[in-house]
Amino acid sequence: QNICKPEGYVMDTCSDFDGIEALNRRVSGPLKKLIRTKFFRTLRVELYKPCQFWTSEGSCFQRDCIVQPLDEDRVPSEWRAQKIDQTNFGPFLGSFPRQRQEYTEKDFAIVNDETYGEGVWLDLVDNPERFTGYAGAGANAIWMSIYQDNCFGVPPYLQDTAGGWGSQLVNVDGKSMPFVQPPRKRRELTPFLQDLAEEDRAVTLPADVPYEYRVFYRMVSGLHASISAHICADYFNATSNRWEPNLSCFISRIGAFPDRLQNIYFNFVLLSSAIQKMKPYLEAYDYSTGSAKDDLAVKRLMPKILNSVKNAGLLFDDSELFIGAAGRELKHEFKENFRNISRIMDCTGCEKCRLWGKTQTLGIGTAMKALFSYPERAFRGSFTTLDFKRNEIVALITTYFQFSCSLEGIEMFRSMYQDFVTDW
Ligand code: FAD
Questions:
Q1: What pTM value is reported for the model?
Q2: Which ligand 1 atom sits nearest the alpha carbon of residue 352?
Q3: 143 Cβ inside 6 Å of ligand 1
Q4: Active-site residue 350, yes or no?
């Protein structure tokens, strides 16, 4: 049984799975080299922003949860100089440090501008996303708060039919799933989480869930699945003391849930589509860091990626999204909810997980900003209407790479599974 080989079209997109895997094979090589260049591996992240939602519990202080900060001497001086020059406020920063806006109406995520705030410079390559051991109530509370409070209650109308939270089982597309109301208090999460652990099932979205809600849910679930794919591909085997892929981790978290698997592809489509739209801007962007070798590498690699993405044709048709007055309202809610998810990342009790959670919500937020906040023509000509910060560009490309790795991981686990079944 070929359980991790989806066929046909990636749901809610114009792309087929084979085409997406083929695109990934073309971009993954150049991406691997690109993310090792100074411009893309260096990022300033507000890693220690207080959690606004609950008192953080379950922090992980194990070695693999901790982030290695970057020696600031290795950061190009212009980027550090910008930080000191706080009189030069952009429209983004406002006029007083404490009152600066964290986002504009065009933003889908909290941007945490690198030139401001209490960020830490980090080398992303030195802090890979992988198994850290962070788990339990703290991690679960974050995922549950994201799904239950910020995903429009998808599947939304089931809230009306089930009424009350607990362990009622609601039938969705022939499958049962535990239904719960969004937990309002921290202590209410505990029984809910126990419920869910027992009823750990796939959710197949009913066809009549509004398109915007489905897109939102797929993005979140795809991000979650991609994080799980990284955990399972780079897993610490405590018996052999080695980092290695863990097939049962992959099957139990992703492979057994076709929708989660597909949602990784969905995110890759969305990111590819944004990069396709941004091509002229990304071609013209100034990536210089002062390192001749790295700057030359970016000049050579970026066009390869952009051309492959361009040649992939129409990937995601956004013409059906956010239509009319209701659509405008929905887009507003969509942004509010995703910004909220990016704020929830501050509550992650493991530094490295927080780093990747924040970076990837920013990356997906940047893709959505490109797709839904600007018309095509804004990415041609002089780009004067565009407002993208350096960290948004880094996050976008880095997130694209993380999903590219997840797709590679799926192919690797698919063949491991085939071998396992054959041997067995
Ligand atoms: P979880 O992954 O915690 O999932 C909770 C529940 O959500 C599951 O029981 C299931 O019902 C549902 N679910 C699971 N996946 C999906 C999906 N794709 N779509 C829809 N529903 C789903 N751990 C690391 O080792 N390394 C990391 O880098 C890392 N980064 C993290 C970043 C963030 C922001 C968070 C919140 C957690 C991170 N973690 C990381 C922890 C990790 O995601 C898991 O929470 C942890 O491994 C425990 O896994 P679990 O099996 O309990 O299920």
A1: 0.87
A2: 28
A3: yes
A4: yes
